Amino acid sequence: MSPDHVVELRINGETHRIETDVRTTLLDLLRERLHLTGTKKGCDHGLCGACTVAVDGERVVSCLTLAVSIDGSDVLTIEGIADGDELHPLQRAFVECDGFQCGFCTPGQISSAHAMLAEHARGDLSTVSFDGSRADVVNGCPRLTAAEIRERMAGNICRCGAYANIVAAIEAVAVKGRTG
């Protein structure tokens, strides 16, 4: 019996049917088979967040996600966040706020922040959400404070320590409501 399986994934809006070994991670499929190298392999243990992508709108660490386990899903990588040559507001904010230094973690940070803003908009809570006051609630959602952003982005590590600028970039987008 062959360990190969055909998966069909819609990646950044384009459908791909790929025969792959059942042990292949989404990260390796993206990088090695589809040449979408924006998603980075950091620790390869699901601890650093460099490989974060969205699967059906939810953040996942692609180094721990088997490609066959998400057969039929929509995947959004860093390459799909921009609109052609037009940067997404989150990408622009990272540039404007200097939200990166070496840049290795940046694709995972932006992918994670992109999905996190959608999670927040639909009303998903974090542990920090329960620490705020009623004044911090806007349209039924806790206001996205710096503490809230730090908590929600905790799975993404930046070895350079650009956290203050990363939080500022996300906050700038959240305040202007430019999450689209």
From TrEMBL:
Domain 2Fe-2S ferredoxin-type: 5-81
CDD domains in the record: fer2
Keywords: 2Fe-2S, Iron, Iron-sulfur, Metal-binding, Oxidoreductase
GO molecular function, one term: 2 iron, 2 sulfur cluster binding
Record pathway: Alkaloid degradation; nicotine degradation
PROSITE patterns xref list: 2FE2S_FER_1, 2FE2S_FER_2
Domain of life: Bacteria
InterPro entries (UniProt xref): 2Fe-2S-bd, 2Fe-2S-bd_dom_sf, 2Fe-2S_ferredoxin-like_sf, 2Fe-2S_ferredoxin-type, 2Fe2S_fd_BS, Aldehyde_Oxdr_Iron-Sulfur, Beta-grasp_dom_sf
Pfam families named among the record's database cross-references: Fer2, Fer2_2
Name of the protein in its database record: Oxidoreductase
